Amino acid sequence: MPSTAPFSSRASLYGETGKTWLSAAIFILLAVLLPVAVLAMLALGGSLQHWLHLVEFVLPQAFVDTVLLLVGVGIGTVFIGTGTAWLVTAYNFPGRRVLVWALLLPLAVPTYIVAFVYLDILHPLGPVQSVIRDMLGYDSPRQFRLPDLRALPGAIFVLTLVLYPYVYLTARAMFATQAANVIEAARTLGCNGRETFYRVALPMARPAIAVGACLVMFEVLNDIGASEFLGVRTLTVSVYTTWITRSDLAGAAQIAVLMLILVVGLVWLEWRGRRRQRYITMHRMRPMQAQSVGGLKGLGLTALCAVPVCLGFIAPAWYLLSETIKHFQTVGGVSAQLLASAGNTVLVAAVATPITIVCGLVIVWTARRVRETTVGNWRSGLRLAGIGYAVPGTVLAIGLLTPLSFLDTGLGIGLNALFGIDSGLLIMGSMTALVVAYTIRFLAIAIGGIDAGLARVPASLEQASRLLGENSTATLWRVHLPLLRPAIVAATLLVFVDAMKELPATLLLRPINFETLSTWLYAEAIRGTYEEGAVAALIIVVIGLLPVILLSRMGWSSER
Amino acid sequence: MTIALKLDNLRLAYDTADGMHHVVDGFSLTLEQGEIGCLLGASGCGKTTVLRAVAGFEPVRAGQILLDGQIIATAAFHVAPEHRHVGMVFQDYALFPHLTAADNIAFGLRRWSRADRQARVAAMLELVGLDSAGKSYPHELSGGQQQRIALARALAPKPKLILLDEPFSNLDVDLRERLARDVRAILKASGQTGLLVTHNRPEAYALADYVGTMADGRMLQWDRVENSGQTER
Questions:
Q1: What does the alpha-carbon distance between residue A129 and residue B105 come to, in Å, rounded to a whole number?
Q2: Which residues are CB-contacts of A327 (< 8 A; sequence separation ≥ 6)?
Q3: DSSP conformational letter for A334
Q4: Are the Cβ atoms of A467 and B92 closer than 8 angstroms?
Q5: Which end of chain A has the least Cβ crowding within 10 Å, N or C?
Q6: Residue of A nearest to B97 (CA)
Q7: How far apart are CA A535 and CA B137, in angstroms?
Q8: Burial B47-80, CB ≥16 within 10 A → b, else e
């Protein structure tokens, strides 16, 4: 028999239930890819005039600003993230054990909040500049003021402050678990600490650092609040204003497509980084021994590592806390609107989270079964379902507007014809659109978390269950779900918190007069009224601390 | 005697970048009801692949597998593992870590009545000599105890055939042969047909009625233990 003979029964090796799973997974995958396809169609459908206008007036500035912002924040976060990760791994200095996890704290502060806070802190009449003027003996902002934060360097500064932990996380994981033997070998070959870092540790960690930097840049592309508050007209901001103020969907889609091209480049970089990282992580090594540094030098290291924590977390948190206390002392409570926004935030996140988790479970379980029954192609296809985390929120929202409105119209006609009900806008008029957007955007978190949990369940457990008479679905229910519970709980928490913090897609897809905490804060910051913004921001930061605590307790294995 | 398991001219293979790699080709054996067979060979000789094909985890590329006279696998036909009534003791035991020993044994008895199930679990615990371990979780048991629970779990649904994949490889050397004899006694006491895979010769002769020596995907010899000149039992 020729060795290339087709093998017909292979797909049915595990029985017939696979088809239901596969159909469900493919449906989810198509739903995820739909917005991207729609964008491409919209962009192609846009008139040439649009393109010319964009190329002439909007794109050059927005594109250059976006790239400069990406590069600036990329360099800043790599520098701070890698530097601090190496210091806390290679050296033992006072406060190191606290700093190891404290360096993660800025993750709790979304970009739009750190910008909101620093605008006020560094305002010419704000606390920092007043103190500086007092020290220097000036008494008016006209005599002395720091350069205005509202410019590209300011945006790079504040974004770097809260995004460096992504690089810190991946670099630290690399340094802590992989490098020990090699670094000791380098030492015996005569390298000192500095040489070891530059010649061995840094080259080894480069893929991990690249992965972290890509996560940072996804966040930068996604950011709308910080850029807008700080007056940087990035592509994201352009998408938003093109649609909201000019109602020009085709134009917004064209800019969005341009952003997608940037995203594809970043995804490719990240994928390459992860692939190389896997190659290195194949050899598990013991953690490296930190070198003790005492005295003044040790305190110097402590100070160096404490700076990012102070600027990225303690200062903003302190500011928000004191503003909140001040607000309660003067006003005595919070407005009904703020309470309603908080309620809306929890409601949307609470609806979107379980849907996201179930979709993630379907994708992961199907991918695992497909992996065992057919050749690998389907599996990488299903992985595409996680692409939403790389697609900026505004881009996703623009891509969803058309299909969801279309669905609304269809539903309206159908319900009217069948029952004579005027349904109005069932999807765009309710929070359904938000739930869809959150699910697509955060599906990668669910997939990643559940997949990592599943990888720890030996294949023999599934086989044992099958031989004891259970089919695949029953096996999932009786064996894997109980074993996956910690992974699912962790993924639920991460998705819930990210959904609560989401701003860009929410701004575009929320129903009229529907505010969440993040859109409330956005509106306050845009209006320049800071009354209750701090309260909303503080709530978001406190909730944002939950996954940071989880991360620090899980050790360092977790990545997005 | 009736024939319990028959492998007929079996070909097992996996796809590689440059075509198909044959792990096993033209492989045949028969095992009678109540007898214990053993495939003996170095790692990579294809013995585990044969076992996994009987369990239903590997596709058959040519030839056929018959269990109790019924075809369960050919190149075009495949009975799902859960419908084969085959039990298996895994190399890592594969005990469900979230279930007690008793619940592990009861796992395959979901469709039994409650009373029958409880009686069967108790009987199995007694059979493997671990009456008091029912409420323990797998991680609270020693390696040897875990192995017995895994055996009890595989036997509980009264399978037509029981497969043992290197069942002693995780145990101390001095424990192995004694346990092999215990396992033989348990299988014989319940009249089970069994197929064992190992690379350990003393283990094979302590446990099996038939031993087949495998190399390079082929059976070199398949004979009764008494006839092989190694009757040390």
A1: 72
A2: A334, A531, A532, A534, A535
A3: -
A4: no
A5: N
A6: A483
A7: 49
A8: bbbbbbbbbbbbbbbbbbbbbeeeebbbbeebbb
CA angle in degrees (0–180, nearest 5) for B111-B115-B119:
100
Contact B80 A479 (CB under 8 A): no
| 3-state SS string for A347-379 | HHHHHHHHHHHHHHHHHHHHHHHHHHHCCCHHH
The rounded distance, in Å, linking the Cα atoms of A499 and A350 is 9
Q: In the sheet where B3-16 sits, what is the strand order?
A: B19-32, B3-16, B62-67, B70-73
Distance from CA of B80 to the nearest CA of A (A): 5
Residue-wise pLDDT for A464-473, tens only, equals 999 999 988 8
- Taking the CA of residue B76 as centre, how many other CA atoms within 13 Å lie in the half-sphere pointing to its CB? 0
Residue of A374, A467, A483 to mutate for B, most B C-beta atoms under 10 A: A467
* Residues facing residue B30 across a β-bridge: B6
Q: Give residue-wise pLDDT tens across range A313-325.
A: 999 999 999 989 9
Q: In whole angstroms, what separates CA A69 from the centre of its chain?
A: 17
Find the CB nearest A15 among B13, B57, B80: B80
Contact A224, A93 (CB under 8 A): no
For chains A and B, count residue pairs whose Cβ atoms are closer than 8 Å. 92
Element (H, E) at A91: strand A91-92
pLDDT tens string A113-166: 999 899 888 887 777 887 888 888 787 777 777 777 888 999 999 999 999 999
Of the residues A9, A468, A471, A476, the best mutation for testing chain B's interface (the one with the most B CB atoms within 10 Å of its CB) is A468
Please give the pLDDT value at position A6: 32
Q: How confident is the prediction for chain B on average, in pLDDT?
A: 89
- For A468-506, the DSSP string reads TT--HHHHIIIIIHHHHHHHHHHHHHHHHHHHHH--HHH
What CA–CA distance (Å, rounded) separates A540 from A324? 13
Are the C-beta atoms of residues B165 and B90 closer than 8 Å to each other? yes
Select from A8, A467, A469 the Cβ nearest to the Cβ of B88. A467
Amino acid at A550: L
Give the Cα separation of B95 and B153 in Å (integer): 9
Tokens read off for A62? 């927005």
- In this predicted structure, the answer to whether residue A287 has a pLDDT above a threshold of 70 is no
Task: Output the six-digit token pair for B102.
Answer: 């008793």
Record: contact B78-A13, CB cut-off 8 A = yes
Q: Which string of DSSP letters, residue by residue, matches chain B? A: --EEEEEEEEEEEEEETTEEEEEEEEEEEEEETT-EEEEE--TTSSHHHHHHHHHTSS---EEEEEETTEEEE-SS-B--GGGS-EEEE-TT----TTS-HHHHHHGGGTTS-HHHHHHHHHHHHHHTT-GGGTTS-GGGS-HHHHHHHHHHHHHTT--SEEEEESTTTTS-HHHHHHHHHHHHHHHHHTT--EEEEES-HHHHHHH-SEEEEEETTEEEEEEEGGGGT----
CA pair distance A72, B161, nearest whole angstrom: 66
Number of Cβ atoms within 10 Å of the Cβ of A482: 12
Residue A324 contacts residue A317 (beta carbons within 8 Å): no
B181 to chain A, closest Cα gap in Å: 24
Cβ of residue A483 closer than 8 Å to a chain B Cβ: yes
B103-135 pLDDT tens trace:
999 999 989 999 999 999 999 999 999 999 999
Q: Which residue of B has its CA nearest to A460?
A: B94
Q: What is the CA angle B88-B93-B99, rounded to 5?
A: 105
Residue A1: how many other CB atoms lie within 10 Å = 9
Which residue among A3, A12, A463 places its CB closest to the CB of B94? Answer: A463
Amino acid in the structure at residue A482: P
Arithmetic mean of pLDDT, A499-504: 93
